[in-house]
Amino acid sequence: MVDSFEKIPVKIFTTPKDGSEFAAREIGKLIRSKESKGEKCVLGLATGSTPISLYASLVRLHQEEGLSFKNVVTFNLDEYYPIEPEALQSYHNFMQRNLFSKVDIDPANINIPDGRVAKDKIKEYCQQYEQKIEAAGGIDLQVLGIGNNGHIGFNEPGSSRYSKTRLVTLDNSTRVANAREFQNISHVPRMAITMGISTIMNAKRIILMAWGLKANIVQKSVEGHVTEHIPASILQQHNDCTFIIDELAATELTRFKSPWLTGEITWTPQTIRKAVVHMALKLKKPVLSLTTNDYIDSGLGDLLTEFGDGYEINLQVYYQLRDSITGWPGGKPNAVIPNHPERSEPYPNLLSASR
Ligand code: GLP
Q: What percent of the chain is modeled with pLDDT above 70?
């Protein structure tokens, strides 16, 4: 963990496939170790596009390496409400398609909230879901994805840290994001049954996976304050939670975005420019107006120690930026300015060439 910034251990993989393979192997190890002790392995499972590659890896482990799901009991996080289990978009259908129909799990060991329960019976039904988890010995490992607003399961921003399985109303942003699974937004159910945040936090171990364009919310969840406005940030208070993410989802973490803040880095003209531009944007000041104090307050004191005057650094960065501006994107005939981006030969004029 890059201390003081990342408050949850993060493992970064080149591709979602690599991350999923790692997560699948961790789950496989747990299933096998439980099996060797004659115990059931209780998994909490997630849906959405993120875990599809995880389930593909688990199916492969089953088919090629003999990983058996006979001693596995599963509890899914959530389900739309109302919805029929046979509906194409139901999480029942999703789980059958992506995992259950392809492994040797006993159907009696599968638990997914039922989107058909009568409204006046839901409270009782949710309590029973909680009791069932408890009776199974609690969740050994919970798999999570993350919504763009930081939701986990269907615990939208504002959900209480102490919430349990219950009926919730979906955020409009969640309905918009999930509309891709339905004909159009008007077909997306307005409610869902979801495990609560405390149900999730009670799991002995948690793996949250995030790929691609989730960099912003990953950064806020891992490095920000713990707040119910970003439900995933509450995971900072779990003692065995790991984020498994790909390189793209890691780009907003301080160690990549502002590496100079996390310790010593090797200064090159590029890293200096990145750091100074970052500071200028943050302080909303022109580069040439940055002062020695700005450098020190922005954690760039090292840069001053190494290169001296802030004014000189401002100038060098300013020159770099200035020289990247050209009024001749098509090339400037006979340009002679060294290191200037203008081409000395005009770029071939495609229109006249095709005439
Ligand atoms: C849904 C699910 C969540 C999931 C999230 C992210 O709303 N209820 O469990 O984590 O969306 O979905 P995706 O993985 O498709 O980005």
A: 91
- Report whether pLDDT(161) > 90: yes
What pLDDT is stored for residue 74 in this prediction?
98
Instruction: Locate all alpha helices (DSSP H) within 169-300, ordered by sequence.
Output: 172-178, 197-201, 215-223, 254-257, 269-283, 292-297
Residue 349 pLDDT greater than 80, yes or no: no
Q: Find how far residue 57's CA is from the centre of its chain.
A: 19
Which residue type does 234 have? I
Active-site annotation holder among 6, 21, 79, 156: 156
For residue 145, the ligand 1 atom closest to its alpha carbon is 10
- 150 CB less than 6 Å from ligand 1? no
Angle of CA points 53, 129, 233, to nearest 5°: 55
Residue 67 sits at the vertex; the CA angle it makes with 44 and 238, to the nearest 5 degrees, is: 30
Domain ranges in the chain with CATH number 3.40.50.1360:
2-253
List residues bridging with 243 in a β-sheet. Answer: 10, 208
Active site residue 156: yes
> What is the architecture, at CATH level 2, of domain 2-253?
3-Layer(aba) Sandwich (3.40)
pLDDT of 54: 98
